[in-house]
Amino acid sequence: MDIKTLAQKIDSDKKLVSGHRTCAGCAIPIIVRTILSATDNFLVAANSTGCMEVTTTIYPYTSWNIPWIHNAFENVAATLSGIEGAFKALRKKGKIDKEIKFVAFGGDGGLYDIGLQSLSGALERGHNCLYVCYNNEAYQNTGGQRSSGTSKGSITTTTPKGKKEARKDLMRIVLAHHIDYAAQAAVHNILDLYQKAEKAFNAKGPSFLNVLSPCTLNWGFMPNSTIKISKLAADTCFWPLYEVEKGKYKLNYNPFKKLPLEEFFKLQKRFSYLLKPENKNFLNEIQNEVDDNWEELLKKSG
C-alpha cells in the first residue's frame, strides 16, 4: 500500500471521529486513527486515564465510534483482558460468531509506571489483545511530571534541572514475556506504524506497540513541528524503529546519515539547556548511551 492510498483509508475510517480536544499539533489522534484503521474486524477499545482519554470523551460527548471503555490509570490491561475473556466464553457458548479484535491505549504513565503490573499480568496470561503505548515521555495530562519513560536529560516539572536517570526499556520488559510480536514506531512514519499495527492485530496472543508521540506543549516546540521532531528522533537514533517477531529482531529504519542528538534537542525547550557549553559532558553522556543502544540493536538485527 502506498502512502496516498493509506492516507485515504485512514481518512475514510470512522472509528475515531472529529470533535476531540487534543492540543494543536498533538500526535495522539494520528497514532490512534492509524492503528484503528489497520483492521477491518469489529473492534473494542479500552483506555487508561491520560491525555487521550480526557480529550476524546469530554462529557457528554465522545469521539469514539466503536465500543470503548475507560478505567483507572493502573488497570487498562486488566480491564481489556476481562473483556477478551468474556468474548471467548460467549463465543464458546455460540452466542457470538464474529471475529473481534481488542486494543488498549495508554500513555507512558499508564503502561511504563502505574499500569505495568496489569500489563505484565495480561502478557503472561496470553490474552489475544493489542496493547499500545502512545509515548509522550511524561505525565503530560497533569502538567508534565517525569515518568520512567522520560528520557535522560529531559526537563519536566519534577526534574527542573534535567532527569538524571535513563529511560526504562519497556520493550525489553515486554519481550521478556515471550510474546509473538512487539514493535517500536513513531508518528512521522504512518506506513510503518500501519504495517506494524496490522501484524500486531494478526499476532497470536498478546502484542505490543510503543509509539513515540511528541508533546508540543511540554516538550516545548511549535505545533507545526510534530512530524519533524518525530523524524529527527529516528534520524538521531534516539528512537529507533524496529520490530521483534517471534524473538527475531528486524530494524525498520537505518538513517543514511545518523545525526547527532543536538539536531533533535535544539528544537525542544526541554533539552535546550544541554546545548550550553557547561553541560557538554552531560550531553556527551547521553549521546554515548544512545550510540551504545543503537549498536546493540544493530547487532540484534543482524
Task: Describe it.
By secondary structure, this protein is of the alpha/beta class. It has a single domain, classed as Rossmann fold (3-Layer(aba) Sandwich), CATH 3.40.50.970. Helices cover 39% and strands 14% of the residues. The chain has helices at 3-12, 28-36, 51-56, 76-92, 108-113, 116-125, 170-175, 190-202, 216-220, 226-235, 261-265, 280-300, and strands at 42-47, 68-70, 100-106, 130-135, 181-186, 207-212, 242-245, 248-251. Helix 2 crosses helix 8 and helix 4 packs parallel to helix 6. The mean pLDDT is 97.
Structural topology:
Blueprint: H1 3-12, H2 28-36, E1 42-47, H3 51-56, E2 68-70, H4 76-92, E3 100-106, H5 108-113, H6 116-125, E4 130-135, H7 170-175, E5 181-186, H8 190-202, E6 207-212, H9 216-220, H10 226-235, E7 242-245, E8 248-251, H11 261-265, H12 280-300
Parallel strand pairs: 1-2, 1-3, 3-4, 4-6, 5-6
Antiparallel strand pairs: 5-7, 7-8
